[in-house]
């Protein structure tokens, strides 16, 4: 890469072409960190499509490696979670060895974020189908985080972005109230526009909320040795644990 950002550059691989989470990420990332986005084009959100995506990810990783970014973040948790927590780590270790650049997946970021806030019993709220939710729950359990419930909203994969933050809040709150022992919430998936629900849920339920977008901003900062808190999007970014 001919030009390098003064705080480092992260290459991200977006699984879908839908707008929303990329813009949110760029708004929240500190000034001086460069973002190089590539896209896969996943459309159905089915288990078979996620399973077939790994080879496509490596093609994009090779492109980013040629640009000599400082960190590679392949987004889209389900394609890697299908491999299991340990299986995903083996894939990432292999790619890091092959391409010589640090990498971290969405699943790894979310596990790290949950553990940084000492969450052991989580309620997951998502727009995913039952098959994907089962994969997510199994992955989290393997990572040492007990899933009390994985509550999915019934909505077509390509319509998740039309859910309002109020719908996300109400759906998530109902799930958490069924589990008073919960010590954390995971708003799973970047497809819905749910950033506005984070602080309301934390305020009303008094437990931390992990959302994929602030979690990746936090994880990218940590790996690039940047420490710039951002308020208004939950405890994780405000406190930078």
Mean pLDDT: 93
Order of strands side by side in the largest beta sheet?
5-4-6-7
What proportion strand? 5-15%
Give a count of the beta strands, DSSP E runs of length 2 or more: 7
Over the alpha carbons, how many angstroms does the gyration radius reach? Answer: 17 Å
Count of separate DSSP helical elements: 11
Helical fraction equals: 40-55%
- The shape, in one word, is globular
Low-confidence stretches: none
**Series of H and E elements:** EHEHHEHHHEHEHEHEHH
Distance between the amino and carboxyl termini: 32 Å
The largest sheet is: 4 strands, parallel
| Structural class estimated from helices and strands | alpha/beta
SSE arrangement:
Layout: E1 9-14, H1 21-28, E2 34-39, H2 47-51, H3 54-66, E3 71-74, H4 77-81, H5 85-99, H6 106-116, E4 121-126, H7 130-142, E5 146-152, H8 165-177, E6 184-188, H9 195-205, E7 209-210, H10 212-223, H11 235-239
Parallel strand pairs: 1-2, 1-3, 4-5, 4-6, 6-7
Helix pairs in contact: 1-10, 6-10, 8-9
How would you describe this protein?
With 241 residues, the chain is an alpha/beta fold. The protein contains eleven helices and seven strands. Strands 5-4-6-7 form a four-stranded parallel beta sheet, with helices on both faces. It has a three-stranded parallel beta sheet with strand order 2-1-3, with helices on one face. The protein is globular, with a radius of gyration of 17 Å. The chain starts with 8 loop residues before the first strand and ends with a helix.
